[in-house]
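Dear U.,

For the methods section draft, I wanted the exact inputs and outputs in one place so we can describe them consistently. I've listed the two proteins in the order they'll appear in the manuscript figures. Please don't edit the token lines directly; just add comments below if something needs changing.

First protein:
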Amino acid sequence: MNRSERHHRIDNIEFNVTDIARSKAFYGEVFGWHFVDYGPGYTEFQDGRLAGGFTTGEPVRPGGPLVILYTDDLEDTQRKLLQAGATISRATFAFPGGRRFHFIDPDGYELAVWCDR
């Protein structure tokens, strides 16, 4: 899928976990997911259709995984979210592979948006 086909689509789901090895063993055994480690605090998983990650970088929180959308233009998407009434819950930060920010939607759900540049 090229960059414009990914624009504003769900691209990644991130689980905050307490033990990455345990999570890898569980999901690998039950669902056959494959993993790529990016250091001690982050592992990417592939289920054959969707990518996601296990991280110990944030506390485990009720309400499920973090849904992450991709954008071609991080600043423009943030501007549109703010105009629509979202609240930025985590300012833009860099990580290996790109940049992202988190926002709260009008119902209180936290999501993230990332860009590879």
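Second protein (the one for the lower panel):
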Amino acid sequence: MQANALMFCAEDRLVWDQLFTRQIKTIEHVSYAPFKKGLEALGFHAGHIPRFEEINETIGQLTGWQIYPVPGLIDNRHFFEQMMGRRFGSTQWLRKLSQLDYLEEPDMFHDVFGHIPLLTDPAIAEFLEGLANVANKHLDNEEVIEAIARIYWYTVEFGLVQEGTKIKIYGAGILSSIGESDFCLSVRANRIPFDLEKVIDTPYVKDKFQEQYFVLYSITQLKNVLKNLEMKYKINN
């Protein structure tokens, strides 16, 4: 069933409005440029909670992706199987007003505001599909799937990228978090160059700010990440 504006109550609309308004101001000068273009292409704004059918029409035309509803976190197998077909799962519920500053489990603001604008960017769209293709060759190998999950976490969820002379945010988990979007670029954060082996060796945490952020020298580096990942876990026929 597709999301419909009639499903949302007055508190939902207020939550979306407040989160959107303050987050746009927070990341205005620090977000990855194609993310901002994606927001514009999708027509996201504070006064309207996007409907899935509206989103799918736009991203379908731009990159061939579609989103589908999920109740919350889903297992890696289902997640990667769907992504291989350019389908991205999104929740349809919004946090409460009392949870504006922090929510451990991803809600619709995280999924839709944080992730969906990136699906309009061919570089991210192709990376996600490529990551899923590798994962689907190793669905029965927990070690490989965990490694791929960590790569996803430290790129699409909590990744930083060099743009010109500045470091910008492209990870959805940061873009949708007012606290972490400030912290990750502060002097308190530990930022290191992206290295595939280091990423795979670094467990991720969900209940606090990341202990390290991996920085791409360019978004084009994601192509090399995929190539090196495929070589590392190449199937011997």
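Candidate sentences for the figure legend, describing the second protein: Residues 10-27 form the longest helix (18 residues). Residues 45 and 228 are 38 Å apart (CA to CA).

Thanks,
Y.
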